[in-house]
Write a structure and sequence with these properties.
Helix 2 crosses helix 3 and helix 2 crosses helix 8 (about 285-295). With about 325 residues, the protein is of the alpha/beta class. The strands form four sheets. Strands 3, 4, 5, 8, 9, 16 and 17 form a seven-stranded mixed beta sheet that branches. A six-stranded parallel beta sheet has the order 12-11-10-13-14-15, with helices on both faces. It has two domains: about 1-130 and about 300-335, Medium-chain alcohol dehydrogenases, catalytic domain (Quinone Oxidoreductase, Chain A, domain 1, Alpha-Beta Complex); about 145-280, NAD(P)-binding Rossmann-like Domain (Rossmann fold). The protein is globular and about 60 Å long. It is about 25% helix and about 25% strand. It has helices spanning about 40-45, 135-155, 170-180, 190-200, 215-220, 235-240, 265-270, 285-295, 300-305, 315-320, and strands at about 1-10, 10-15, 25-35, 60-65, 80, 85, 105, 120-125, 125-130, 160-165, 185-190, 205-210, 225-230, 245-255, 275-280, 305-310, 330-335. It contains ten helices and 17 strands.
Length: about 325
């Protein structure tokens, strides 16, 4: 089977590998679609903090069941999506149902080889039917679930003012689910094209481009009170630190981003505002189900989000282009 490997930062290589054998309690999945995530771009660029090379990337994917255990809830031919966070089920986090931050987590495409290949054999509990959605949609559930999880973590309420800093796919996912909860959503980013997309496709109430007067613009949009909830989805330490300034008194700051750096903030300002600071990692089954329900209801502009497509065989040659801002990539899907 064709497999694409990231040997070192900036280097992708295609090779033929033996098809995996289905292990006990596992489901053999024929991979059909793989979403390219910011994590994959970071792996390719060499700035993903949890990874060792070489690695087969890809954790946002859908496929078709090839083989399933006897008596399984799955059968050959089922369209499925995969929870790529392989949790242990036993640790302190898993015992609380917070499998997204399992102590022993193995994320496909990060800690172990992922979906830039044609077949994967996976533990049955992480493979789920994708009834009522297409293969393309099922491949986009994971990144949307990260946004849905962050919004749920923040307990966003109708009527709240929400700022999302970073208008990449994860930031867009947070915008979508904050707006579905009835919040007024503002997007802040350096790229005018991304902000235009958010305005046209995601129905945000306002956009602000990074610049000398961006803080003044944000203040003006909120009667100088700033935002009840701020989400950072930049992956930039300086932006993450700066975002504390945009949180209203009694507000909440959610760091969806993860960086290999130490983040600092002004303690007097933090206490004065009684800021709630949250980390948000991955997603749970509940968040995936939230996304699927929204997709089935036609509330996700998934066709607009999927701006680019490449074939798996073309990934070594085409992948670097996805990093070029001039390409206007929001979500690229690899077809297997």
């Amino acid at each position: 089977m064709l497999t694409v490997i990231c040997d070192t930062p900036g280097t992708l290589r295609a090779e033929e590998r033996a098809m995996p054998e289905r292990g006990e309690g596992e489901v053999l999945v024929r991979v059909k679609r793989v979403g390219v995530c910011g994590t994959d771009l970071h792996i390719f660029s060499g700035n993903q903090p949890y990874l060792n090379y070489p690695r087969v990337m890809g954790h946002e994917f859908s496929g078709i069941v090839e083989q399933a255990p006897q008596g399984s809830r799955l059968k050959a031919g089922d369209t499925v999506y995969v929870m790529p966070y392989l949790s242990c089920g036993k640790c302190v986090a898993c015992r609380q149902g917070k499998t997204n931050c399992c102590v022993n987590i193995q994320v496909l495409g990060v800690h172990r080889d992922g979906a830039f290949t044609e077949y994967l054999s996976l533990p049955e509990q992480f493979v789920h039917k994708a009834d009522g959605v297409t293969l393309d949609q099922a491949a986009m559930v994971e990144f949307l679930a990260i946004g849905a999880h962050a919004v749920r973590r923040a307990n966003v309420q109708a009527g709240q003012r929400v700022l999302v800093v970073g208008a990449g796919p994860i930031g867009m996912a947070a915008m979508i689910f904050a707006r579905l909860r009835g919040a007024t959503v503002v997007a802040l980013d350096s790229r005018g094209d991304r902000l235009g997309f958010c305005k046209a496709q995601l129905d945000v109430s306002a956009t602000v481009q990074l610049g000398d007067d961006d803080e003044q613009q944000l203040a003006a949009l909120t009667d100088n009170e700033f935002f009840d909830v701020v989400f950072d989805a930049t992956g930039n330490p300086k932006a993450m630190e700066r975002g504390f300034r945009f949180v209203a008194h009694a507000g909440t700051y959610v760091l969806i981003s993860v960086v290999g750096a130490t983040i600092s903030f002004s303690d007097p300002e933090f206490h004065k505002r009684e800021t709630t600071l949250l980390g948000s990692r991955n997603a749970t089954v509940e968040d995936f189900e939230t996304v699927l329900a929204a997709m089935r209801a036609g509330q996700i502009p998934d066709a607009a989000l999927n701006t680019h497509r490449i074939a798996l065989a073309d990934a070594p040659a085409q992948f670097p282009r996805l990093l070029d801002p001039a390409m206007g990539v929001v979500k690229a899907i690899v077809e297997c």
